[in-house]
Amino acid sequence: MPKKLAVAILNWNGKGWLEKFLPDVVRFSRDADVYVIDNLSTDDSVEFLRTRFPSVTIIKNDKNYGFAGGYNEGLKQIDNEIYCLLNSDVEVTANWTEPVLELFERDPSIAAIQPKILAYNRKTYFEFAGAAGGLIDNIGYPYCRGRLFDDVEEDNGQYDDESEIFWASGCCFFIRSKDFWDQKGFDERFFAHQEEIDLCWRMINSGRKIFYTWKSKVYHVGGGTLNKQSPKKTFLNIRNNLSMVLKNAPFPQLVGIIFLRLCLDGLAGIYFGIKLGFSHFIAVLKAHFSFYGYAAGSWKRRQKHQKSKFYQTEWIIFKHFLGKK
Fold it and tell me: I want to staple 127 with a disulfide (CB 3.0 to 4.6 A). Which of 51, 119, 153, 155 is the partner?
């Protein structure tokens, strides 16, 4: 009989991360079944798990499906009521699951929950990928409480609350299995990056809630599988964000949002090319052409209803870079 919670870690050649962080996951997750979904690693991760962690169930995918497809494939074999999708480069803490399970129990309308995510290498600061819960602005730029673009806040208790957010970070993503499968899981075309934001947006359009709780705390290394400065990361973030907007934004605003975003991405491409190198400028161009190739499929994936006001803030990019907020 499975426990209520399944902690599922997606692995691809991540033996070092598993060796470092999996012992605490096992030690502090007594109320959960722990799984590692392996995306056909070529290192000795699987043998290492069999030898060192016999209590952990290994699910082997037949190829590297990326983050989105890897979880979609692996979770088909997990029957628990609630999933926690946990990055392999996350350090969990004592009692990290209990507040989340209690919040799910209190409010059946909540589909997904994110804990407080702090930086492993700078533990008094929020971490880039999630911080104190994800929000979105009126032209589809995602940001976080505690992190605006590259600027990260120190944790001084300013987000010690339980509150509704727009998206929960995929690095530590609790979700009811029913909600996950009601939405047919992640969009596998995304491969990696922003697939969790797309999923949360779809759930919100379906009338479900996303929440954050400060009572659960984890520490994320970040960049464990794809470096922040990688042109591939630039490509995936831009392509997937545009596709997500096309899938989920309400139609009256959609045309204007996409047009403005394409223009701003052009400026961003020039900026990235100067700051990070020409390969990032090329990544922006490739992302746009890939978005055009995805457009028909993204349009077909639109739900019947989209919330007319989906955002928390207007023009975050201008307020931050021009208004210095």
Answer: 119
Residue 101's identity, in one-letter code, is L
Which tokens sit at 68?
A: 């989105």
- For β-strands 82-86 and 172-176, DSSP reports them as antiparallel
Q: 3-state DSSP call for residue 268?
A: helix
Distances (CA, A) of 190 to 218, 231, 254, 275, 287: 25, 16, 20, 26, 11
Closest by alpha carbon to 241, among 287, 185, 200, 282?
Answer: 287
Give the residue-averaged pLDDT of 225-250.
89
Q: Which two tokens stand for residue 292?
A: 């055009």
**So where are the chain's domains?**
231-321
pLDDT tens profile 151-194: 999 999 999 999 999 999 999 999 999 999 999 999 999 999 99
As a whole number of angstroms, the longest Cα–Cα distance in the chain is 56
CA atoms within 13 A on the CB side of 294: 25
53: CB partners within 8 A, 6+ apart: 22, 26
Sequence-separated (6 or more) residues with CB below 8 Å from residue 197: 134, 136, 142, 166, 167, 244
Strands 110-119 and 209-220: parallel
Tokens 């201008």: give the residue: 318
